[in-house]
Amino acid sequence: MNKETLKKNLREIPDFPIPGILFYDVTTLFKNAECLQGMIDELYEMYKDKGITKVVGIESRGFILGGALAARLGAGFIMARKPGKLPAEVVEETYAKEYGTDTIRIHKDAINENDIVLLHDDLLATGGTMAATYRLVKRCGAKQAFVNFVIELKGLNGRKAFTDDVEVTTLLQL
Hints:
- This protein is of the alpha/beta class.
- It has 5 helices and 9 strands.
- The strands form 3 sheets. It has a 5-stranded parallel β-sheet with strand order 4-3-7-8-9, sandwiched between helices. It has a two-stranded antiparallel sheet with strand order 1-2. The chain has a two-stranded antiparallel ribbon with strand order 5-6.
- Strand 5 and strand 6 (about 100-105) form a beta hairpin.
- Helix 3 (about 35-45) packs across helix 4.
């Protein structure tokens, strides 16, 4: 996938959701067939030989490419969600945010010790949600876990949320 094509099709929205924030809207990448197929193809090439058995998509934009990639890899798809969204018994991880805490959950029976898991989301900013999801997946006994994002905002140093032994990949760094 041509990174310039991704950049050209990424919508930037200033002052959203609050003044001073530049929001990168990935919906424009998903609506463009060339970008969507290119991202799926590139992610497939990155992970096709890693033995992935489950892909975990982070609510909610991580569901889009995560689900498509799981199907392409022949893997199962797991949704990581905020409280109150999953109907069966869950395991959860609470994590600190700038102001307060948040919680991420998956179904208790979603992952086991035989699984090699790819965690996917759209954007790496501070890394808090993904780091919590990574800890949750490892606590569930996953044999191995990889972390992937479409976009990384390098200036926010989100990779620091992960230990050096965690493989973190992105399609585009801004």
